[in-house]
Amino acid sequence: MKVSLRRLPLVALLALPAAVHAQNELSNFTATGRGGVINTFAQDYQAIGINPANLGRPGESLVAFTILEGGGGLASRSLSKTLLRRILFDSSQPIGAAGKAELVNGFEGKNALNINADVTTLGFAISLPNGLGGIAVSNRQRLGAHLALNRNAADVIINGQKAASMQQYFPTDAAGNYTGTGLPAPPISNFLNGTTIQLAWTSEYNLSYGVRVLDNAAFKLSVGAGYRYIQGIGIADIQVKSGSLSAYSSLSPIFKVDYGQLASNQQFNLKSGSGLRPVGSGNGFDLGVAAEIGKLVRVGASVTDVGSMTWKGNVVTASDQLLQPTAATGVETYNVLKGIINQFDTDKNNLFSYQAAQKRSASLPAKLRLGAGVRLSSLFEAGIDVTTPLNKVAGNLTSTFVGLGVDFKPTPWLRLSSGLTGGAGYGASLPLGFTLVSPIWEAGISSRDVTGYFNEKSPYYSAALGFLRFKIGGKS
Questions:
Q1: 171 located within any domain
Q2: Confidence class for position 10, pLDDT limits 50, 70, 90
Q3: Structural contact between residues 44 and 64, judged by C-beta atoms closer than 8 angstroms
Q4: Average pLDDT over the chain, rounded to whole?
Q5: How high is the pLDDT of residue 339?
Q6: Cα angle vertex 463, ends 458, 467, to 5°?
Q7: Residues 85-96: pLDDT tens digits?
Q8: pTM of the entire predicted model
Q9: Residue 49: inside a domain, yes or no?
Q10: How far is C-alpha 444 from the geometric centre of its chain's CA atoms?
Q11: What is the pLDDT averaged over residues 217-231?
Q12: How far apart are CA 352 and CA 349, in angstroms?
């Protein structure tokens, strides 16, 4: 089934439950067990996108590689666990007036829904001889989505034209017929102020290098840099705040969007076909430094995802305008995601009017990463990370991440990971991970927050898996 043009701002949300927000540590099952605390822990290909300077530190192996290592997470700070489970797993259940009021309250919030999925299809690293450092390469699929709704947006999605926020401007009778003139319609930027809908899906090809530049008993210093070529599969970025509206999207043919008459517009660069055909490309860079103080203390600092994307295929934009009436009747079941998309259907009078564009440039989700750690031995390591978003583009963290993480090996064949983390739109989390260790092979499973599976408030479901991580030519 094709998706109509007016569904563009939220078409991504329809695909999310089938696809399984964006911190790339979810592609690393060992880091996920520490809640994403990784700056001083990362080595070999795990240093890509985190701190390339760690590649200059002599590692525990000569060669390391992985195949299909990844994870995903879904969280809400405003929906209850009961509501989230109904939306995801029992969406056909009918809903009454009380249930609708509960949904409106649940979807009103700055972090109504955050979703991440990251998969490293292939990662490889090698330590060069004679102190020449280390090189790592990888391919990674990254998907992140963020939904924040103000009261008006949540009300219209759930109740349609019967929403109290719409009735004051466009009053209707029980049959849905307009009964008169209400208050003057406001600009959409006022009506939806505080609403954000973002999705970013990219495929990246990474190359990172690190080298030690200072080496003595008391202090060791490494520097590193990384480059990535990025193919854009899709982006949707709608932000309404402080009386302004910014909205655009560029989606691959895999989303099956019907662009209607815009497809023949000379300003529109139609990308048709099937599959993961890229609709954008870009370049990103990472820079990092890492130091070892004595034999125990490690510190690191890096700036990642500096660069930009240019989206050239299927680009549409929307600008501010006066609020329009809607013919939507709202949701009758817990299939709220479909209800969201229906707000932008072409057979109804809805919120946005779209214009064709030949291209759109956007910054990458740049971050500042700081870390400090203590490595007492190969059996125990602890670290503290602070990661701050440097912009508010689609795919970035919604707020600063802070975490404490530990690795402990009670036996030679088992490594346990845990910690305490908070921020990034997820609240306080208790991560946990289990990794089976041998001289050449590692496999494990981990979660960003084990309590999130059971919390009625602020549910958080996350998991990362890896079964094909190999390290050759060094100690386990």
A1: yes
A2: very low
A3: yes
A4: 86
A5: 64
A6: 175
A7: 998 888 899 999
A8: 0.84
A9: yes
A10: 22
A11: 96
A12: 9
Residue 196 vs residues 127, 150, 241, 308: alpha-carbon distances, Å? 43, 9, 8, 21
Q: How much is the average pLDDT of 127-148?
A: 92
Rounded CA-CA distance 350/16 in Å is 23
Per the structure, how many domains does the chain have?
A: 1
Rounded Cα gap, residues 33 and 464, in angstroms: 8
CB 60 within 8 A of CB 465: no
Cα 403 from chain centroid (whole Å): 18
> Tokens for 423?
């921020």
Contact 40, 383 (CB under 8 A): yes
Angle value at C-alpha 111, between 359 and 405, nearest 5 degrees = 105
User: Using 50, 70 and 90 to split pLDDT, how confident is the model at 26?
Assistant: low
348-364 residue pLDDT tens: 445 667 788 889 998 99
Rounded Cα distance between 44 and 65, Å, is: 8
CA distance 298 to 287: 17
Q: How many CB atoms lie within 10 A of CB 347?
A: 9
Which of the two residues, 1 and 274, has the higher pLDDT score?
274
- Integer angstrom CA distances of residue 342 from 110, 158, 159, 230, 408: 22, 11, 12, 32, 50
Residue with tokens 């997820």: 426
Residue 64 structure tokens: 């390391």
Place of tokens 């076909």: 273
CA distance 248 to 401: 27
Length of the chain: 476
53: number of CA atoms within 13 Å, CB side? Answer: 27
Task: Determine, yes or no, domain membership for 475.
Answer: no
Q: What is the pLDDT of residue 200?
A: 85
Strand partners of residue 212: 222
Of residues 249, 66, 61, 209, the one with CA closest to residue 140 = 66
Pair 26, 118: CB distance under 8 Å? yes
Q: Of the ranges 334-343, 446-455, 459-468, which one carries the lowest mean pLDDT score?
A: 334-343
Is there a domain that residue 166 lies in?
yes
Q: Are 435 and 409 in contact (CB under 8 A)?
A: no
Cβ count near 349 (within 10 Å)? 12
CA distance 419 to 401: 13
- Residue 336 lies in domain: 3-28+35-58+66-429
